[in-house]
Amino acid sequence: MSYKTEGSAAKKNHAAVGRSFKMTSTLKSFLNSAKQSLSGASTPAPGTPDGNTPCSHLFPKVDPAVDGEDCDHDCDSCIVSLPKGFKIDEDDKLYGYVKGWSTHVLVATGKTDWVRDVADEKGSVMEAIDKNADVKPSNGRLMLSASNIPTPSHTTSYSEPTTVLLLPAFIVIENVTPKNVNTLISEFVNKGPTNSTPLGPISIPASLPDPLPTADQLTSRPSPHRALILLCSQKTRDARCGQSAPLLRKELERHLRVCGLFRDLDDERPGGVGIYFISHVGGHKYSANVMVYRKADAFGLDNVERGKLDGEICPPPAKPSADEVQEGAAQCIWIARVRPEDCEGIVKFTVLQGKVVKPERQLRGGFDRQRGVFSW
Predict the structure, then answer these.
(1) Bridge partners of residue 331, in order along the sequence
(2) Phi, psi (degrees; rounded to nearest 5) at 245
């Protein structure tokens, strides 16, 4: 029956089209690779680099059989949406191309936006660390971020001492000024754990006098939070970051409140989740970028199989304990292309259980110190 067969001319024509399509796809892939290589190390090229931990091996992906049939569904009750015309790059492969980092410093500024390069904020701790410090990080690359964490004086003036949050140590360091950043780096950053340090007890001094007689004494304490969500909000680098961050924060807050885990900027109750705006982390064309730092089995739910239980699962209220062993962050899960409808899954599975919902589309990288794996 003739409609089940095709003549030789038709076959040759289809073969030619196939070869043309393959050549076009190959050329497009080559051009994308070249373009991405020129644009910097934090921009991904197609494929996963040789030697990197495979995307599927870094963090567990949600599984409907374990986590419930709707574990990979978008939230259908969002109260916010991104602006009309909000467009991002959906073509690049994301995983495995973020530049590896060892430690991360968040400087409290009380601001949500900064000059293009935060190291150019005159008189700031960011400027002092990046440009003026005589002591340099000795344990790998330091990621430096300005943040909207309130300053002790509740002003945005750089003339007043401020606070620094050191990760993965989960340590808050107080009375930081441009004059004592050498001590900050030598005694806290360089002596703290890194993203590749095996998970274990850490020891950070509670207070440390600075050798400069005019400098304030640096003091430190553990962060009270079990997890942190960091959102890039720097609109001077890309307007999409400034637009998406407050909308995502509102939606994340809504879902965290269900379990009593949301912590406002000044809320120091133990056991919750802090949400902070930070400066540019790279890859703004994949906005919104979200980094989730979490302690080991942060809420006691990592091994819970939601699919076998009825209703929402929330951790029991946290009780402060002076005897808690400080180990710092066990994981950092860095995702992008995040939209408001993703927030429910991010809270339920990423923040509460250390899993990823859409790794193929959203996962950029990160680390797991318990398992000794990282994406770079």
Answers:
(1) 294, 368
(2) -55, -50
**Nearest one of 142, 155, 133, 154 to 106, comparing CA atoms:** 142
pTM: 0.85
Within 8 A by CB and 6+ apart from 93, the residues are 44, 45, 46, 47, 48
The C-alpha atoms of residue 76 and residue 310 are separated, in whole angstroms, by: 19
Per-residue pLDDT, averaged over 232-238, amounts to 92
208 Cβ contact partners less than 8 Å away, ≥ 6 residues apart: 183, 187, 188, 217, 218, 219, 220
pLDDT computed for residue 34 by the predictor = 42
pLDDT in tens, 285-318: 999 999 999 999 999 999 999 998 887 789 988 7
Residue 4 sits at φ, ψ, to 5 deg, of -95, -5
Contact 274, 103 (CB under 8 A): no
The rounded distance, in Å, linking the Cα atoms of 334 and 135 is 29
Q: How far apart are alpha carbons 220 and 288 in whole angstroms?
A: 31
3-class DSSP state for residue 103? strand
- Please tell me whether residue 60 adopts helix, strand or coil conformation: coil
Beta-sheet strands, E only, within the chain: 103-108, 142-147, 162-167, 171-176, 207-208, 218-222, 227-232, 262-263, 273-278, 290-295, 329-335, 363-368, 373-374
| Side-chain half-sphere exposure of 39, counting CA atoms within 13 A | 17
Whole-angstrom distance, CA of residue 306 vs CA of residue 310: 8
Nearest to 109 by CA among 183, 49, 159, 41: 159
For the chain, the average pLDDT equals 86
